[in-house]
């Protein structure tokens, strides 16, 4: 294998591991468990039409992964870990 192939494979497995940790089933409630919901520090970065970047920081309680991503479907993931998610929504320029 050449270095490019090894690098691509390494990136793939790192992303796969990050996604698996983020979507781990025990972080969310199931119908037969009394687990607490996941809580994340959510940083929302929104680009305004004039180019200014507005940032909002809040705590988000996540009961359902599907509902969370539906709520933020228009946002792009900038970074995420087990405690914090940074999302960015591009401005709507004419």
From TrEMBL:
The keyword Signal applies. InterPro entries: BOFC_N, BOFC_N_sf. Residues 1-23 form the signal peptide. The keyword Signal applies. It comes from the Bacteria. Keywords: Signal. Residues 42-89 form the Bypass-of-forespore C N-terminal domain. This is Bypass of Forespore C, N terminal.
């Amino acid at each position: 294998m050449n270095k490019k192939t090894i690098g691509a494979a390494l990136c793939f497995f790192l992303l796969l591991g990050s996604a698996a940790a983020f979507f781990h089933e025990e972080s969310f409630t199931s119908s037969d468990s009394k687990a607490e919901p996941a809580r994340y520090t959510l940083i929302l970065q929104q680009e305004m039409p004039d180019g200014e970047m507005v940032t909002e920081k809040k705590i988000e309680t996540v009961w359902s992964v599907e509902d969370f991503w539906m709520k933020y479907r228009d946002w792009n993931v900038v970074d995420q870990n087990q405690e914090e998610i940074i999302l960015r929504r591009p401005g709507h320029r004419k």
